[in-house]
């Protein structure tokens, strides 16, 4: 946006003075500083990246305040507000912190309409307010959805670890076998003892033992293949 305004000044489509150029430089410098700090210290600045970027609207209003009144200036003020609302939505990490800056931007935009451009149209003000509130609501929903998804991922990971721990510590030998890919998925501790395999060794060793028909002597003890009347604690379960 700043570059577009500078190009308009270079094309002599709008007058520019030294103060305006200084504000342009400050705007670019501020945004580059925030981006670099977030890149260098992501743990600290990620949460406040969106509100710090959105503060750039204050520079935009200052530029319009120093510029002559025109319909282009009104459009720039409105477009600037919408642009930084989108920045807040896309870069948001903490919706209530970002919302504070967006509400301040809204108040500043309305002040510019009244004080600088002498626009007191209720419809325009209502559009400013409703757009800002909608963006804040969208930020809340998006952040809430992301947090819920993250919690589900953590819960699934924890459940998988607990299930694997349970299977590994079963008192009977147990083997999980993927019939579609024809490979071992999991063998518990008792199975490793039965096959004289260390727990640290790869599952490929179990695959190798299976291809060498090492289980053939145990077929009569494998549940579903041998005698169904045999006690379950003497069975080798293959799933």
pLDDT < 50 stretches: 222-230, 232-239
Largest sheet: 3 strands, mixed
Give the N-terminus to C-terminus distance in angstroms: 62 Å
Count of helical regions? 10
Strand content: 5-15%
The number of distinct β-strands equals 3
Q: What's the number of domains?
A: 2
What series of H and E elements makes up the topology? HHHHHHHHEEHHE
Output the strand order for the largest sheet: 2-1-3
Q: Looking at the structure, what is the overall shape?
A: elongated
What does the average pLDDT come to? 80
Computed over alpha carbons, the radius of gyration is 33 Å
Q: What share of residues is helical?
A: 55-70%
Q: Tell me the structural class.
A: mainly alpha
Keywords: Membrane, Transmembrane, Transmembrane helix
Compact summary:
The chain is mainly alpha-helical and 239 residues long. 66% of the residues lie in helices and 5% in strands.
